[in-house]
Amino acid sequence: MHSTIRIAAAAGAMALLAGCASIENSRGFLVDEVLIASVQPGLDNQESVTGTLGRPTVISQFGEPVWYYISSRTNEAPFQRPRIRAHSVLQVRFDESGTVASIDRTGIDKVVRLDPDNDETPTLGRNRTLLQDLFGNIGQVGAAGVGGQ
Q: Which CATH number describes the domain made up of 21-111?
């Protein structure tokens, strides 16, 4: 009888500990070093890169054509924010003819954590009160140089 209680207590404790384990998530491009190494500047073009690496996560909209393959791995413990464990951005730059010009990689060293200040976004312009907004135009209508005579 005592051994079954001990086994049940041990199983319950293990179930509680398993519920507190962190969850690992992979997001974005799945990095495969062999496939990345097979893309060669000067030899590959946009079609062959798509065939090898797949569609990019982001394509540059301005300037020179650059494809970005973004991947990240996070750990998420119960009741906490996810934490980035690994982050990688693969940049494939193309020349005017669509041939790969260069391949660059950046990592977690380029990630910036942004914390909003009091849930407000600072904006440019004047800081005016409601009364200043309501009554700010009094005396401005019909002033010299404005027209409206």
A: 3.30.1450
